[in-house]
Amino acid sequence: MIDVEALKAYAYDTIGAIHEVHKELGPGLNEKVYQEGLQLELSERNIPFQKELLFHPLYHGKEMESTYRLDFLVNDDIIVELKSVESLSNEHKAQLFNYMRLLKASVGILVNFYPRFAEIERYFFDPENNEVYASDGFPIRKNS
């Protein structure tokens, strides 16, 4: 079982950077604007990250040709996916959960900058059980 409270603390600085970007830029802009803002904010805070990281999923231990692109990988194991949409959908969540599972990332943050108050959802991955957990510590779904 993962320690959700420890992972929340681990993601705290990244969440703070996201809040600052929304505070500075406001709601309703294009996703790329927020991506650039978050890149600048993470740099200013000296938080290590990779932007638009490409990766190839593995199949039976072999790298596939297919590629995925993460908006951000922070501290090597926090995936941040940015959206600027009217409302977050199950497809947005599924995208994040799959990225977390494929990369064995301990934290996933899904952000919607479109509304007046940024929507920030945190999720946590337990590689032992191959499960994603919500911030309340309950499993979201079983990944098989």
Describe the structure in your own words.
There is one protein chain. It is globular, with a radius of gyration of 15 Å. The chain has helices at residues 4-10, 12-25, 31-44, 90-103; strands at residues 49-55, 58-59, 62-63, 68-74, 78-83, 107-112, 119-126, 131-134, 139-142. The chain has 144 residues and is of the alpha+beta class. The protein is 34% helix and 32% strand. A hairpin with a 4-residue loop joins strand 8 (131-134) and strand 9 (139-142). The mean pLDDT is 94. The strands form 2 sheets. A 7-stranded mixed β-sheet has the order 1-4-5-6-7-8-9, with helices on both faces. Strands 2-3 form a two-stranded antiparallel sheet. Helix 2 (12-25) packs across helix 3. The two termini are 17 Å apart. The protein contains 4 helices and 9 strands. The protein has one domain (4-142).
Feature tags:
4 helices; two-stranded antiparallel sheet; 9 strands; alpha+beta; 144 residues; seven-stranded mixed β-sheet
In short:
The chain has 144 residues and is an alpha+beta fold.
Give the topology string: H per helix, E per strand.
HHHEEEEEHEEEE
The biggest sheet, with number of strands, parallel, antiparallel or mixed sense and barrel status, is:
7 strands, mixed
> Which range does the strand content fall in?
25-35%
What percent of residues adopt helix (DSSP H or I)? 25-40%
Mean pLDDT: 94
* Apparent shape: globular
Distance between the termini: 17 Å
Number of helices: 4
User: Which stretches of 5+ consecutive residues score pLDDT under 50?
Assistant: none
